């Protein structure tokens, strides 16, 4: 059962970037790339698969397995040219526009950083989290 009051306060990406640039790994980083996933009104089935059943998302129950997230982060840090990885995940009952996740990746060159961000976000979304969309028919 998801408890409404579990929802967390979102982090500041400005603060994250300042902290990342003070990290010892910063001397190797030529690019930081951030991802901010948010709850949207359009159902995942429509966005990803083109299936339109006439429903709209009104909220989401969101949870995650911290052990799996930690493993995904460790794997991302092993990718070529990646020197910095930070992840924040929300939890609980989320509303439209609420932050689901923040991911920050720092690496040597753009192709490595873009690939690592795509890899990590996909791994988190497919292996580490449970997203249950709440909705209604229009």
Structure summary, number of beta strands: 6
Q: Helical amount among residues, as a percent range?
A: 25-40%
End-to-end Cα distance, whole Å, is 27 Å
Helix and strand content put the structural class at alpha+beta
- Specify the number of helices: 4
How much of the sequence lies in strands comes to 25-35%
Largest sheet: 3 strands, antiparallel
State the strand order across the main sheet: 1-5-3
Mean pLDDT: 92
Radius of gyration: 16 Å
Could you give the order of the helices and strands? HEHEHEEEHE
Low-confidence stretches: none
Principal-axis shape: elongated
Describe this structure in words.
34% of the residues lie in helices and 35% in strands. By secondary structure, the protein is of the alpha+beta class. The strands form two sheets. Strands 1-5-3 form a three-stranded antiparallel sheet, sandwiched between helices. Strands 4-2-6 form a three-stranded antiparallel sheet. The two termini are 27 Å apart. The model has no long low-confidence stretch (mean pLDDT 92).
């Amino acid at each position: 059962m998801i408890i409404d009051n579990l929802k967390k306060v979102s982090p500041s990406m400005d603060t994250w970037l300042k902290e990342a640039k003070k990290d010892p790994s910063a001397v190797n980083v030529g690019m930081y790339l951030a991802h901010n996933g948010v709850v949207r009104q359009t159902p995942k089935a429509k966005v990803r698969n083109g299936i339109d059943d006439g429903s709209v998302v009104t909220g989401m129950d969101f949870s995650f397995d911290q052990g799996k997230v930690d493993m995904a982060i460790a794997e991302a840090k092993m990718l070529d040219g990646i020197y910095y990885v930070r992840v924040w995940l929300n939890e609980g009952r989320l509303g439209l526009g609420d932050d689901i996740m923040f991911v920050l990746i720092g690496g040597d060159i753009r192709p490595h950083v873009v690939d690592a961000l795509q890899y990590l976000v996909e791994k988190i979304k497919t292996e580490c989290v449970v997203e249950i969309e709440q909705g209604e028919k229009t």
